[in-house]
Amino acid sequence: MRVLITGGSGFVGQRLCRRLKEAGHRLLVVSREPDRVRDRLPSGTDIRRSVLDFVDTPPDAIVNLAGESIAARRWSDDQKKRLIDSRVNITRDLVMLCEQLAATGGRAPAVMVSASAMGYYGDQGDREVTEETPPHDEFAYRLCKRWEDAAREAADFGTRVAILRIGLVLDAGGGSLQKMLPPFKLGLGGRFGDGTQFMPWVHREDLVRAILFLLDGEELEGPFNGSAPHPVTNAEFTRVLAKQLGRPAIFPVPAIVLETAFGEMSRLLLTGADMRPQRLLDAGFEFKFPTLEQALADILG
């Protein structure tokens, strides 16, 4: 089938495109700079600058991964707007594509798997969080809600919509580990604040497998937590990572230092949610790397 991917040249998108190509699917990727990203994608990928450029090549499925990094810079009012717009605007374009395809007598894509994030839940303390847990109202939640609400509009045109609330993505060569590894390898790592905040995480391979699972699951719609079934606290993450590297982790970063350096964005580091992938598990999805020890052994070993 033809699969349209936004964010296809990113850390998750590249692995997803490779898996889709291996399975025999045709890739349609949106990028504002086709020539710059072409080498990152499988040969034969159809790369165009706009979602609506694919009206003449109707996709059978959509995976929506686009969005500016939420931790790229401090959350000024302008940056908050950029974070929202980078997610909501392209998602609205995808919905518009579904609408145009349906209106011209064709068929809207059968399914859209649209990314969201663990930030949907906001700060949840130490309570166990499933897809049914009410969110805590803060910026990360409001961003994710607008993103998800925009994606759900595709259902009006007959498209099945699955929302994947993604945790910290772990793998070599990018993602959350890229910035963590240098200080930990030097023995300068440590917990953030008191370390009791939860860090939902997922191996990149399992995340890609979950996306493919949702694409194929004809009755799977609504929100799904995209994280491993065994989340850990920041202190536990620090301990396991340091042990895997054979280094000490004795340099905690006080909360006040993070708050001073990053302002409101420090909440990404100092708060979290004990997020569980209940709906994926109930649907029969099996994680290849269910524990942090297994994931880091695969990535770093």
UniProtKB/TrEMBL annotation:
InterPro entries: DUF1731 (IPR013549), Epimerase_deHydtase (IPR001509), NAD(P)-bd_dom_sf (IPR036291), SDR39U1 (IPR010099). It comes from the Bacteria. Residues 253-299 form the DUF1731 domain. Residues 3-217 form the NAD-dependent epimerase/dehydratase domain. Belongs to the NAD(P)-dependent epimerase/dehydratase family. SDR39U1 subfamily. NCBIfam families: yfcH. This is TIGR01777 family oxidoreductase. It comes from Halomonas flagellata.
